[in-house]
Design a protein that fits this description.
Blueprint (H helix, E strand, L loop, with lengths): L1 H24 L2 H29 L4 E5 L4 E3 L3 E2 L2 E2 L4 E3 L17 E5 L4 E3 L3 E2 L2 E2 L4 E3 L1
Parallel strand pairs: 1-6, 2-7, 3-8, 4-9, 5-10
Length: about 130
């Protein structure tokens, strides 16, 4: 993706410089016509890229459905989830090197008491009367 970005930037810079040189050193009317065509092509390419990005999405979706369902897009660390649940003495720091969920990833918890996380799950008291002591 980075290669595509930089190659597009270099091509656009080259075209802009070429059009400017053509207008200054050569035929201004020809450069004007060429820049109109280039502008139309770039506008259409931008439209296609926008429609592509909208159709394919890019954001993560987090959904929880059902009584007591819990869904988290990232890490779930040191939480008390449920009636009379307790967490004591547990470090709330996230472990190093745990990646966040990638783009387009869906995290879903469906059903009564369902729990889902898009990354690390550690040190949690889940359910009624759950307890974690550290």
């Amino acid at each position: 993706m980075r290669l595509l970005f930089w190659s597009t930037a270099l091509v656009c810079t080259g075209v802009a410089v070429a059009l400017a040189l053509w207008a200054v050193l050569g035929d201004a009317a020809g450069a004007e016509r060429a820049s109109a065509v280039v502008g139309a092509v770039v506008g259409l390419a931008g439209l296609v890229a926008s429609v592509f990005a909208l159709r394919h999405g890019g954001g993560a979706a987090v959904r929880a459905g059902g009584r007591g369902a819990v869904a988290a897009g990232g890490s779930v660390i040191g939480n008390a989830i449920g009636a009379d649940s307790r967490v004591t003495g547990v470090s709330l720091a996230s472990p190093l090197g745990v990646p966040a969920p990638g783009p387009g990833r869906t995290v879903s918890a469906q059903g009564e008491g369902a729990v889902a996380a898009g990354s690390d799950v550690a040190g949690n008291a889940l359910g009624e009367g759950g307890e974690v002591t550290g």
